[in-house]
Amino acid sequence: MSGDRWDALLDRDWSEAWETLSEAPDLVPRAKTAQITLRLPAAMLARVKRVASARALPYHTLVRSWLVEGVRSSVVPQIEEPDTGAQTAQLNIKLDQTVLDFLKERAHELRQPYHRLARELVEWETEQAEKALGLDPTPSQRPAIKEQLR
To answer: Can you give the CATH number for the domain in which 79 is found?
Structure first.
């Protein structure tokens, strides 16, 4: 658009045209979200990623669905062998505020911190998914790709 035409549009009185425009639709309110950060052993995060890859899902989405299912379920996760490795990996998950509130409420009922309950849900669901998919739960002895690039 040329400069003269642009100036003409800016100088024009638009008040009559403005009155003929329809009202803008109301904004749709979105649910509030919250982010939680789970600290996991690196081997556990690798297992989660392997399950997500086998299911062709992003691992954040898979973990979020596990947490939502865990909050809705009355089952308390029974972990066969808790992963006691150093919790060096972080997993950031965005949840609806209502889901986080239910997670906190459930953790309060079980008398444990909600981060611990979330970790246990992730670990338990990982074990269940590995069994269902026939995956070996032991961590791979192969070095990570980023380690090979150094």
So the answer is: 1.10.1220
